[in-house]
Amino acid sequence: MDPKIKKQVLRTFTYGLYAISCADEGEVNIFTANWLTQASFDPPLVAVSIENVSKSLPMILHSRIFTINVLRSGGRELAGKLGKSALQQPDKLAGIGFEVGANGCPILHEALAWVACEIRHTVEAGDSTLVVGEVVDVGMQGEGQPLTMAEAGFKHAG
To answer: Coil, helix or strand for 99?
Structure first.
């Protein structure tokens, strides 16, 4: 398989750009994710792929909760800031407005919508872990369109 063609083909997949928040033992974090999808209507399930080397994965696996913040169109700068490694930049949330939701995870003030989840399943997936969460609460925070990878101009494909 030609690695350049593989990368080109995988980049044709369309993705949204989301901010996944988590909380564990009094600590919070928020990271940018694009490998996310609805997986079931009944019960309502979503799946997100999280890098194994991230700060957030152990927090989510321990607490069994996370919240998906749907970023607004035009939110490229926020997505970029949240996309930085919390292990390398532990103060990356400084100056970012959020409130703690009912499940303890941050809800971004700038989010278009949010989805609170509880883990139902996890699956090892190469350099990442696929986390399937049941939707336990939702909220809309305004009007507008969601941010996409295409709009942001970010490129992510193996």
So the answer is: strand
